[in-house]
Amino acid sequence: MTRRFARIAEILKDCSKSSRRLSIITLAFLSIATTATGLAQTELPPPGPTKSANIPAIREFQLPNGLRVAVVEKKSVPLVTAYLLIRSGADSESEENAGLAKITATMLTRGTASRSAEKIAEDIEFLGGSIDSGAGRLSSFVTVTVTTGKLASALSIFSDVVLRPKFAEEELAFLKSQTLDELKFSLTQPGFLANYVASKAVFGEHPVGGTPESIRKITSADIKAFYKDFYRPANATLIFVGDISPLTARSLSMAVFGSWHSEPERENGVSHIGENSNKPVLDPSLVLIIDLPNSGQSAVNYFLRLASVKRNSPDYYTASVYNSILGGGYSSRLNQEIRIKRGLSYGAGSSFQWRANYVNFSARAQTKNESAPEVAKLMTEEINRLADQRVAESELIPRKSVLIGSFGRGLETTASLATNLAELYSLGVQVKAINDYISKIDAVQPEQIRNFANDIKSKGTIVIVGDYAKFRQSLDKMLPNHKVRVVSAVDLNLSGPLFWTK
Question: Using CA atoms, how far apart are residues 208 and 95, in angstroms rounded to an integer?
């Protein structure tokens, strides 16, 4: 190898007058050098020991009006994130008003009694900060991030958005138009449509973003009623993360939210309408095909609602490790089998969506239409293999390390730490649980993974959204023991009980 490098050096010296030839030979030199490096390292190095994460103390107190305040002091960077969590989201809206929580939260930054939407954006930008609002399944939020010296000014805008929203008719009309345009496009995308259908047909929920029909029906009166019912200090938690002391946080929160009061809670006050009222409706042995002719790709999914798995239990840590092994990242099993080994997708993965009393599981990949049944077969095989075979320590340890590393990175920025804490509050998990994450992930054993995997094996519903004509012939061959139901995308009734009419 040394003589080969010497010969290349001689050639490079002789070819200095020819730039094209020089470029070709340089590439050859780099190729040989890379090969030599690969030969020298035949095995991947083992993962290093588990590292601890620096988790700052979480201080809590309550204002006289019932608003809970949590403070995490991080003085490494002169930034502060203020995150107001409202413990009501899409689970507190009716199915007929699907999307109401999200529309209400978005409207907060679309104008107040004293500021237009443009003025809010300009004032925050002038301070060098950012403001955002939105809603998910379990909660709604408003958040602002700004440098420490501008915090008081930013909180003035922040509180104006929360306490004095205008809900102007013209802004609502514009937002509904935007939302409907986004939905119209998204519902032509296989991956989005698969999740949309599964939210109700498998998980027994309604879509957080609403349906075209429900969005059209939402009025300013609906928004004002939702705001009145759920945007109350006793139903909220204000989280400060960053360069701020508990004493300063108390003073500022009293100044901007101390006067926040609400009318007495009505009989239909804070509730969780959607969380447990619906049941999954599809047979687990079913393959549901949503026929979307002329779609560029197919979305292949495995959906399952686990009714017995709770977020505030040891199952959470087992599920996290299980997911890391199966579909949590580039080196996970699904991505290895579907993308890396066979080149059938740009990526395959899995995830859990946690609720307080159950969890929704999904595995997913997008592929060309012709290979959709093959991908579905590979996906179910990998899910079943985790239940049938014990995970080796050589695989388990690196996948735990991925989780622990991601957790540590999630504590680094003020915004990400505030978001992580907000998730715990919204799920009713004690925030001190964040201190136990690393040790409990590290303690998960192979047998726990195997037992957990048996609750998922062969119990999920396969949903494929794509051009059915291009894969119908191979479907029975790849999935011979499954019943198949085909529904045309044009027949979907997005507001109906099963999303279809025929």
Answer: 10
Q: What is the pLDDT of residue 52?
A: 65
Q: Between the ranges 145-159, 404-418, 419-433, where is the mean pLDDT highest? A: 145-159
Q: CA 8: distance to chain centroid?
A: 51
Buried b (16+ CB within 10 A) or exposed e, 68-97: bbbbbbbeeeebbbbbbbbbbbbbbbebeb
Helix (H) or strand (E) holding 475: helix 472-478
CA 241 to centroid of chain Cα atoms: 21
In order, the DSSP letters of 222-235 are: HHHHHHHHH--GGG
Report the alpha-carbon distance of residue 369 to residue 289 in Å, rounded: 12
Give the CB-side neighbour count of residue 452, counting CA atoms within 13 A: 23
The 10 Å CB-count burial string (b at 16+, else e) for 359-398 is: bbbbbbbbbbbebbbbbbbbbbebbeebbeeebeeeebee
Give me the mean pLDDT over the 450-464 stretch.
Answer: 95
The identity of residue 122, as a single letter, is: E
* Mode of pairing for the β-strands spanning 348-354 and 236-242: unpaired
Give the whole-angstrom CA distance, residue 293 versus residue 491. Answer: 13
> Please, are residues 289 and 484 in contact by the beta-carbon 8 Å criterion?
yes
Look at the chain and count its residues. 502
The phi, psi pair for 127, rounded to 5°, reads: -85, -5
Alpha-carbon distance 439 to 412, whole Å? 19
The pLDDT of residue 22 is 41
Structure tokens given for 64: 């006289």
pTM: 0.86
